[in-house]
Amino acid sequence: GDLQMAVNAAIQLEKPLLIKGEPGTGKTMLAEQLAESLGTRLIQWHIKSTTKAQQGLYEYDAVSRLRDSQLGNDRVHDISNYIVKGKLWEAFEAEERVVLLIDEIDKADIEFPNDLLLEIDKMEFFVYETQERVVAKNRPIVLITSNNEKELPDAFLRRCFFHYINFPDHETMEKIVEVHYPGLKQSLVKEALDVFFDVRKVPGLKKKPSTSELIDWLKLLMADEVSEQILQERDPSKAIPPLYGALIKNEQDVHLLQRLAFMARRKG
User: Which end of the chain has fewer CB atoms at under 10 Å, N or C?
Assistant: First the structure.
């Protein structure tokens, strides 16, 4: 539906599609599905906090060149031997139109998105060391994901077509659980999901539990043979869910839940 329209709009407008959403909403999977449906290759660039925009274009390996010159290696006379191609270069020189995924762009520093704007806009860049211009043979379909961990710069946002993926609802979540734990007792899944969505609703949580926390927690519930009765009998306002350490990964949030439970008990 919406998503298909967003993908098509981004392709038509020749803009990158920026997909935001909490972790565990299937943003990366989307890129895989898109490449598959178009019958093309997916090039993935996973961003870390240390990633620099330049690495997406190319890196010049001066260290190897120095070493080779000390060893008297003949390679040293051709500087292009020391140019390491990045993911953008790979996407630009592909014979067919590929899908380029820039995954978790909000992990890098704030300048990172802006540093890529020109190259993604112009679909070309210049390699100073070899004095060559690399121009995209076919404009790749660029998908960019963000976990919403930090605000992205305005100039960058203006250049993108934007789509927000909502967190899966109860029904979708049941299907996701079924994929991970086929045949898990429906009554347990239902109670566990009620608890999970209750916890997500607590106002003031720093880090809401996401899909991966739910999957970890269910694994523990099964291993400890926690019955759905235990989950059922808890008054959501009073009790902290059993084995909550898998759901809540932030001590402030643990204290928050404990405080709420304590206040509810006093009221009661």
Answer: N
